[in-house]
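Quick entry between incubations.
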Amino acid sequence: MGYGVTLFFYLLVGSSIGIALWMSRPEVMSHPGELSLRGGHGFQIWFSVVTAPLFWPLYLPLLLVNRSLETPERRVAPRRNSRDAMSQFINQVERELDRAMQSLHGWAEDLFLSEQPRIMELKTTLRNQADRIRELNDLLTTNSIGVTSISFTDLKTSTASNTAETTSDSGSDSQQHRWASREKTRLDNISQLKQVRDQLDEDLMTTLAWVRELVTMIHLAKYTGAPASRAAEILRQIASATEGLSAPLSRLKIPQSTETAEKSVLV
Amino acid sequence: MNLNALQSLRKTFDEVDEAEEVTDFLPDLPQDSVNNSSTSSYQKGVEGDVEEPIGRGPLALLELILTNPRRLDRLIRKPAEQPELLFRLLAVCLVGFTFFGVAMSLVLSTTLVWPQLSAIDQVLSSTHGSLIQFQGDPAANLSTPWLNGNALCLIAAYAIGLIGATGICLPSLYFYGLLAGVRMTMMDVVIHAIKSKAVAAVTLVGILPLYAALGLAITIFPLSGMIRDAVLLLGLILPFVAGLSGTYSLYRGLSTLTDTMTRDRREYRKCFLQRLVLSWSAVYSAVSPVLIFTLWQRFQG
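Done. Structure below.
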């Protein structure tokens, strides 16, 4: 194979990787139809598209890491508020946990290696929980679901003024009743969402506090000359802390929709 | 746990967080600077290492490379930071090496001498002859290399060759890392390699003024052709001289990964890691000149 052919295939592979990098950008993933390279990562995208044909071996791992790490959930969830208070709490606890794990060196060396995956799992669970709370916060604070109620009369007035039409009073009463009923259910659901958020938040904070407590117990056990089995026991407790986060929603009663409730009454 | 307790817990976290961030890095600091309360600015600097993200400006990463390489070593280990850092480090490499190419072309054009390249296979088959010969052209002037494209060939060959060779040598670095027992992903390998190139590029730009002084000397003073050729040759191998700082940076960065090993392994594998980084640098030092030379020759036709 000559120089020209090698160069052709090299550039071909590089161009493909450049296009793949461009396609895997978050803004492109969220708006697949738009052929736009603008936005916060604009420079990075242009830079990668231009340089990928030449330096694609450097970009290939990035592309593979992107695809393997970004689960659909992560792709949807934006990386907002990555340094908010909750993240800082979790970072703090993780640091303390890491330091405790490091203190196992020379005392319970085998434990350090064997429990590392479970500790990683705990960290992931904590972060996932924080992500869920953040999503719920976003949902409840932004205008995504309309946390305030709109009265039927206001809606009717604005509709009538827009369309310049009048409706009969008899029809209006039954419509108003149905509207009020559904609006009440909607607000109940939002209230339930708030409860879920509070519950998740409380569970997370409790778990973090518990992990911190156990971490200090590891240090205490080490410096009071406790056997390595004691460390194993504490680590098992830390690893099992994720169980407290796994089923917080089961305690909450999820209401049925009005229509479903009405149908069930009729049946 | 009630809400009041949770609020107080959050406050505790806030307070402890600030204190811990400072003490996290105490082993790296001289003890007297830690104990001395008057060194608050130093402590702020350390705290800033954790709290402040890298600035968005084009010079922010450059500043980090020059002033706080340890922080850069920590940052490149964070998977979330790696994609952005890869782009930015690559940009630093490209700008640095392009800057070198422009400077080298300027020196060559002012001396009215341009290197003539011979094919590697021809040089190897013949008993004598050299790969590069500096030949002066009486008809040439300052702008000739820029107009006939020779300067552009040199700039492109160095910029592409130095970074491209890193791509070629990546699998060997990954393999060497595994041999040393360091747990790293391919992405870690890429980011460490590119960081070392960026450090080398910054060092190269740093030593360019010194070389420019030498370049001026051979232009102004009537020196013998041998000295002139030696100075020009030194300029062409300057990226490899600067690459020593990149090698050290690579070693320092990979050394931080030894915390993925157990303590006893770390003890006897650290010297092994040193040798492997040295081996990789040797491989890179063999590959990159060949790649640069080949590209340069092809570009010049």
